[in-house]
Write a structure and sequence with these properties.
The complex is a heterodimer.
Chain A lengths: L1 H6 L3 H9 L7 H6 L7 E6 L1 E5 L8 E6 L4 E4 L11 E9 L10 E14 L4 E3 L32 E6 L12 H15 L3 E7 L5 E3 L2 E3 L4 H16 L7 E6 L19 E7 L1
Chain B lengths: L4 H13 L15 H10 L25 E2 L2 E6 L2 E7 L4 E2 L16 H4 L10 H11 L8 H4 L14 H6 L2 E6 L14 E7 L18 E6 L7 H4 L6 E2 L4 E2 L23 H12 L8 H11 L2 E8 L3 E2 L9 H6 L31 H19 L2 E3 L14 E3 L18 E2 L17 E6 L12 E4 L5 H4 L8 E2 L21 H12 L5 H12 L2
Antiparallel strand pairs in B: 1-4, 2-3, 3-10, 5-7, 6-15, 8-9, 10-11, 12-13, 14-17, 15-16
Helix pairs in contact in B: 2-8, 8-9, 11-14, 13-14
Classes of the chains: A alpha+beta, B alpha+beta.
Chain lengths: ~270, ~525
């Protein structure tokens, strides 16, 4: 499979790929650690952009796991990489066809953009069709669409928002739909308080020879960011109670089966 | 959206009534205005400025001249003619605060928001005004109509940025002020690398003065089609990762689309700041005056109405001109069956349509329609545009002009926020030795700029002067695109003298590779907006 991927590349592109330090490998090495569906893979890499030109937001994002030389398609991530910046990739190997972008598909996959810079690398479509952009299943609607309050019965309810490593940014068309859900539920249920707990992966784990961990400050920043968002959507500040916590995190959820990315989150409890 | 804001807005409104007698209540005013007003108050005005001689001009609107603001007016420009529409009856402007010198320097709002210039002011008009008045018009007031107040006034070189680039001095508190007036601890340090105007290092006006200010230089935005500027089409600012900022007076969401650096969330706050700073008023306008200004602004629509090649812009099925802007709702997202600038779609089918006019006219109209199609559909790789390529879409991301310019009829951004197009940040900004250059260094405890690293050189820090955040360096609020032919130059820093310069900037910046025909089609499109 890996050999077929390499042979699909134009000779020029193959030479260029070989120039990347991350891609020094042999086909024997690849076969020795062929990814299988369901495996969790975590690695740090330099992203490669494949310009498939299949319409708006259609490009492919690839990243090479230097531990086994496998090139992964990380396009399904909520966050797309930035060329020239290392990424932390955490995902589950999918059985989906690699023919769209030219890499073993990781899905679900979480991508975090790191501060470390690396070589920018962009390649042409090379026959790969890419992925046409599709709107997320849940989409924040324009203000012209009337909002409906959730119907009773109302009970104490939890919401979880996941974050990129070392980041408190509320992501477009992901976090904002959850934030709006919380605001609407709060409006409908008249809770006694809304407890926002920001979490940070303060112990972390080793990835590609590096320790991936967060400072506790980011836990508070996440809680504060969610609080600011809720207040802007009309939740009174006096209802909001902010907490922050590092590791260990008991009863932590997973993010679609991924454990480590789920430690970087905020939990919102609407307490009746 | 049902929420708690209405209850609080009511309480806030009641609280404000008691303090509205002598001027806008302090809690309604953005925190930066007091400091800026303090500097403005210390800048001398020309002797007897408030009673300056009125110099006749064909189209110049002098503060306090008492003309009636018409229901519809047409002003010739190099591309044809701009049309100004006021909904409602013609307005008697005598004593109206938009047209009256409220401050000490003889300016009114209309001084920098001229009807003939699409409610902005072009360099052509500025230069003519200089010639007509030998620089004595209040337009050239030392406070911001000169490169810096300490320079000898009435000399052309002291006003070169206004005369050559249409730029007024905008001075922002350093460190930045939050909306509540508290001081923001910025994520970056700021050094003045180049100070050609002398203002940023001046002991009275600069960053080391007792009232520290950063001076940047910007174009005045049009006061027209404001329902589009204030439209709340989407509840979040995706570029900032938060719901829309709230109006401190009403508690309702604001559009996020006002001012180049979003320093004022509401038109009311903008009017207060303009009065205190640009007009050098010693006190805030009264609530009644603010009400009159806002009421007037809400009624004015501006768009090109006629083109010298294309003829009347409502012919052959086109929907140009200000009437369409006035009639249709604001804040609608383009796309699908309604791509942006579909007002001119009918001009793409003229070969078989009646009313095509002469051949020259038909060719021009077809070019406009092609330009609209290029604008909406020709994709390219957008790179290093913080606020766009740094919020999850990836860098680069493939899209078209309409990715950002997506609000039907004005080309603003429905999901608002600020973007770094590269007009002010190096290495993408056009060389401009006449403008200041700042070195901004992100402090170690904060994330660096998403694309430009820890040290950013910029001619204008833009939105970062409002937020103090590294990721906001050089971000500028996306502007409306109507009345362009009447108000050159373009971009917030006037770096594009012509519409062709504007297209060429994008072509270079993003390596688009427009053909000559596509460039001309885009220029023709923008000239009829």
């Amino acid at each position: 499979m890996a050999e077929r991927r390499l042979h699909n590349l134009e000779p020029g592109a193959l030479l260029a790929l070989a120039a990347l330090p991350t891609l020094f490998m042999t086909s024997m090495q690849v076969r020795a650690d062929e990814p299988t569906a369901g495996q969790v893979r975590s690695f740090i890499s330099c992203p490669v952009y494949r310009d498939t030109d299949a319409g708006r937001k259609s490009g492919c994002w690839l990243a090479n796991d230097t531990s086994n030389g496998v090139q992964y398609d990380i396009t399904p991530g909520r966050i797309k990489p930035l060329l020239g910046r290392q990424v932390l990739v955490e995902g589950i190997v999918s059985a989906k066809d690699a023919g769209l972008c030219g890499g073993t598909v990781l899905e679900p996959v979480r991508v975090s953009v790191l501060d470390a810079v690396c070589k920018e690398y962009s390649i042409p479509a090379e026959g790969f069709p890419g992925r046409r952009f599709v709107l997320p299943a849940r989409l924040l609607q324009p203000t012209s669409v009337p909002r409906q309050l959730p119907p009773p019965p109302y009970t104490t309810r939890d919401y979880t928002i996941f974050f990129e490593l070392n980041n408190d940014f509320l992501l477009y068309q992901y976090a904002e739909t959850i934030i709006e859900d919380i605001a609407l539920y709060t409006r409908a249920s008249h809770p006694r308080r809304v407890v926002i707990t920001g979490y940070a992966a303060t112990i972390g784990y080793d990835v590609s020879g590096q320790r991936v961990a967060e400072k506790l400050d980011i836990a508070h920043a996440r809680a504060a960011m969610v609080a600011e968002a809720l207040e802007r959507l009309g939740v009174p500040r006096k209802l909001l109670e902010l907490k922050s916590q590092g590791e260990p995190q008991r009863n932590a959820p997973t993010d679609e089966g991924l454990i480590e990315p789920a430690k970087r989150r905020a939990k919102v409890e609407v307490v009746l | 959206m049902p929420d708690f804001r209405r209850d609080f807005a009511g309480a806030l409104l009641i609280a404000c009534i008691g303090t509205a007698v002598a001027g806008a209540a302090p809690q309604q005013i953005e925190g930066h205005i007091e400091a800026e007003g303090k500097q403005a108050a210390r800048v001398p005005v020309a002797p007897d400025a408030a009673n300056a001689t009125v110099y006749a001009s064909d189209t110049w609107w002098q503060a306090g001249d008492g003309q009636e603001f018409p229901g519809r007016a047409v002003f010739a420009n190099s591309s044809g003619a701009l049309a100004i529409l006021r909904s409602g009856a013609p307005l008697a402007t005598q004593g109206h605060p938009f047209f009256t010198a409220l401050g000490t320097n003889g300016r009114a709002c209309v001084t920098c928001h001229q009807p003939a210039d699409g409610m902005s002011v072009s360099t052509q008009t500025i230069q003519k005004r200089w010639e007509d008045t030998q620089g004595q018009d209040p337009l050239f007031a030392a406070v911001d109509g000169s490169n810096c107040p300490h320079l000898p006034q009435l000399q052309r070189t002291s006003h070169s940025l206004l005369l050559d680039r249409g730029l007024f001095r905008v001075f922002r508190p350093w460190p930045p002020k939050a909306a509540d007036g508290s001081t923001i601890d910025p994520e970056f340090t700021l050094e003045v690398v180049r100070d050609p105007t002398g203002c940023n290092l001046h002991p009275q006006y600069g960053v080391h003065s007792t009232n520290p200010m950063v001076s940047v230089y910007r174009r005045p935005r049009p006061v027209a089609n404001v329902k589009y500027l204030t439209a709340v089409g989407f509840p979040f600012e995706p570029k900032n990762g938060l719901p829309l900022p709230l109006d401190p007076e009403t508690g309702e969401p604001t559009s996020g689309n006002l001012m180049a650096d979003a320093r004022n969330r509401t038109l009311k706050s903008q009017a207060v700041e303009a009065s205190r700073v640009h007009l050098q008023a010693s006190a805030n306008p009264t609530e009644a005056q603010l009400g009159q200004i806002l009421d007037f602004e809400a009624t004015v629509y501006s768009a090109q109405g006629q083109d010298r090649w294309g003829g009347v812009l409502t012919e052959a099925g086109a929907q140009g001109g200000p009437e369409t802007l006035a009639a249709l709702p604001a804040g609608e997202l383009q796309g699908g069956p309604r791509p942006i600038w579909s007002e001119f779609a009918s001009w793409g089918k003229l070969a078989s349509a009646s009313g095509a006019g002469n051949e020259e006219q038909r060719l021009f109209r077809e070019s406009v329609a092609r330009g609209a199609n290029v604008f909406a559909n020709k994709t390219f790789l957008i790179r290093d545009a913080a606020g766009l390529t740094s919020i999850g879409f990836g860098n680069p991301v493939r899209n078209a002009c309409a990715f950002c310019h997506n609000m039907l009829r004005t080309g603003m951004d429905v999901a608002p926020g600020q973007v770094d197009l590269g007009t002010t940040n190096e290495p993408f900004a056009n060389a401009a030795p006449e403008l200041p250059l700042f070195k901004l260094t992100c402090k170690p405890q904060y994330r660096s700029h998403p694309h430009l690293g820890r040290v950013v050189y910029t001619q204008d820090p833009g939105y970062a002067l409002t937020t103090g955040k590294c990721r906001d360096i050089g971000k500028i609020t996306i502007q409306q695109m109507r009345g362009l032919a009447a108000r050159a130059p373009y971009f917030s820093n006037g770096s594009a003298k012509t519409l062709r310069d504007l297209v060429d900037f994008y072509d270079r910046r993003y390596g688009i590779g427009y053909t000559e025909q596509e460039k001309q089609d885009l220029v023709n499109l923008m000239s009829v907006l």
